[in-house]
From TrEMBL:
It is a multi-pass membrane protein. Residues 74-309 form the Fatty acid desaturase domain. It comes from Pedobacter duraquae. The chain crosses the membrane at residues 47-68, 74-95, 216-242. GO terms for molecular function: oxidoreductase activity, acting on paired donors, with oxidation of a pair of donors resulting in the reduction of molecular oxygen to two molecules of water. Belongs to the fatty acid desaturase type 2 family. This is Stearoyl-CoA desaturase (Delta-9 desaturase).
Amino acid sequence: MPLLDYVLQEPSYGWKCEKGILIKPTNKQIFTEFFSRLNVFKDRKNWLPFFSWLKVLCLIPFFFVFVFQFFNVWTVAAAFVYSMIIMGTHGTIWHHRYCTHGAYRFKNNFWRFFTQNLTINVIPEEIYVVSHHVHHAKSDQPGDPYNASAGFLYCFLADVNHQPIAKNLNKADYSRLTSLMKHTGVKPNTYTQYLKWGSIVNPNRAILSWVLNWSFWYLAFYLIGGHALACTLFGAAGFWAVGVRTFNYEGHGKGEDKRKEGTDHNTKDMSINQIWPGIVAGEWHNNHHLYPKSARSGFKPHQVDIAWYYILLMHKLGAISSVKDSKKDFYAKYYLPQQQLKKELVRI
């Protein structure tokens, strides 16, 4: 059985029934699973999803301070840019194209560390990366950790209910699993530590990284614009941290087939290209599912890809040593034939 078939911790309601059909849990089942998996007193192996949501909760007070004390046209503009563009684009650059798909390589560890910490630290790499490999292997099928066909809550709370790694892997499988994270710079637990904590990342290192990252960015924002700017941007990060959990539900048509001929060329799953996520974060999702290992997913002339612009700039500067770009292949197989067909139809 392939590792990705059992690498994630299966929810109590299961992935599929005996007939192989996707199990669609009730909202009550989803919430029960959610709070059970956040309970670190019941099982310390729940620490990573608890830690992930703890960071979100810590950002909420900043959001309210921003709204009730520092709310004006300039802070709103700053919050919009930071949450919608900067945080979103960084997620595409770091978690998506590098950590999961290895679409480019850094020249050295300094530039990897630099890119990793370009924004306020919110999402643990482990929760994102491993589950995203499964998502691509089982997209819109039973076992997909954020299968849109199972509903909004199924996707929104997936980082707790469906994305953490399994807690009972044998030593060989755990070694194979850590190889998926090796290039990210996340130092893995030993197998003995994994059996204790149920995670690849060690809690001590995760907490230290969080404290240092937040301390640096609060100080930097404070020196630029005082508490007003610091609270605004930390609040904006909290807004993004909640909003980003809705993306895969939307990006896979809310469980319906919303693909458009000539726009969504990947027909193997329900992923769709959306204008807003594409422009603000370079997340042309159907293109990405078509070429998951490409450092660029905005292939067509109108498909703005800010994440790609950063990667390309860093490549030009020598910070990134190699890049995978599938634009030529996309043009040859999809875009140019489509344009030729349009010309022929006009002639007719």
